Amino acid sequence: MVPTTCRRTIAHLKLVPPEQKGISLDNRFEKKAFWRKFEAQGYPMYKRLSAILCVFAIFSMSACTGVSVRNAARSQSQAYKAQGAVAEQRLEFVKNYQDCIAKAGENLQQVEACDVYLKSAEALS
After folding, report:
1. How far is CA 54 from CA 44, 47, 68, 113, in A?
2. Which domain holds residue 94?
3. Superkingdom of the source (predicted)?
């Protein structure tokens, strides 16, 4: 004698047509029926496909445009930061030149040595 649980398992392994299991063939193809009804109303497949492709193209173009705008803004921001850093370095060279001239006083050799700062500031211009 086979236990009850095994009998249930064996019964489920038998090939039973879907109609006897309570599954109608129409339920399995509801999606296709929906699209057939949609086409019957005057929306054939090629019109749906072209509409979907147009929407996809619009979204993809807008996404690409946003990326390029962000990259341009980022590049411009980095350029402004670099220009600011150069201006600060130039001001520092000018300040060092002025301090060096103040310390040199009447000594011409030290004044000539201070010209390095002035030339460095001019090079950054």
Report:
1. 16, 11, 21, 70
2. 26-123
3. Bacteria
pTM: 0.45
**Number of independent structural domains in the chain:** 1
Tell me the two tokens of residue 32: 């296709």
CA distances from 72 to 41, 63, 81, 83, 87 (A): 48, 15, 14, 17, 23
Question: pLDDT tens for residues 35-89?
Answer: 666 666 666 666 677 888 888 888 887 777 677 778 888 999 999 999 999 999 9
**What amino acid occupies position 5?**
T
Cα distance between residue 49 and residue 115, in whole Å = 74
19 lies in some domain: no
